[in-house]
Design brief:
mainly alpha, Na+/H+ antiporter like fold, 18 helices
Length: 381
Amino acid sequence: MGIAADFVLIVVAGLLGGLAARALRLPLLVGYVAAGVVVGPHTAGPTVVQVHDIELLAEIGVALLLFSLGLELSFRDLQPVRRIALLGGPIQIVVTCAAGALAAAKGLDMPVPEAIWLGAMIAVSSTAIVLKMLSEAGTTGTLASRVMIGLLVVQDLAVVPMLVVLPQLGDASHLFVKLARAIGIAAALLAAIVILGTRLLPRLLGLVLEWGSRELFLVAVVAIGTGVGYATQMAGLSFALGAFVAGLVLSESEFSHQALSDVTPIRDIFGLLFFVTVGMLLDPRYALSHAGQIACVVLLTFVGKAAIFGVLARAFGYVNRAPWIVGLGLSQIGEFSFVLARTGVTAGLLSKSTYDLALTCTVLTMALSPAVFRVGMRGVR
């Protein structure tokens, strides 16, 4: 049966995991991640076979998740947080990367290049996890949530120069030329998306609606989100980031509410695939044999990132509970660490032990993040 059998297995496992999570009063994504551990290649019992194909479908889930978020927001929503996003975002990335690299080099006796790779992975938070948490809490419109979203956008953009800079740790020749080219291509593509999206895409959706076909409208919406995502991926940016920008552009049109309501069910199904594949990466045997080391890294990640984000938010003038919420909400390691880790292994700059440590800590922080976030959201409506 191939991928069809894998898809059925993942959906059924996700349903059972979701029911268990609800019974325990936990967020659904925790149940999805646990389901991924059960059906993953590292545990006994029913196992997903076509892992690579499922991962490709999971990428679509992340893209649709970000696309729908973009539809919910608008450029006007992000205006109030542009200062902390554009100035504070790079500061947070540099500080977190440096702190993580120093801790890895001194505490884990890790070679400096590997320590820098690990620090870069820790610096990036999970857009998919944070958006899911905000959506389940019903707080996507709050000021703290907008701060988090603005910082996440900057982090996602920062992955591009990271992918250029980090592989050059052993050979820095022509680094600035490569970096300038990558940033130039990214800026030109994003500008093109905004220009075309404000002039062409709303007209296209309007034409489809005039034909009176709800089905064609849904197909057009999904085609826009995934098509723009693919275009950004071909230009060296992330698939998901392009989808988010497409949704943000369309949010300014009159069709945003209908597009969001139509795409939400598809987003949730494909999003399930992503969270299950995250759980499939976790190897329980490795986690048990290195439990002490992993626990230290996970704890330091939560505490360190929460402190850095909290201090940063306070320095930019946010008061009351906002720094606390922002710090706890962004304290996990993000899905782009998977991309950075794979790039490091391919380039021969990451050892297998560091790769396994980074992957395990990423999955655990993503799984535990909803519980940590709930502490910050107590009393918030």
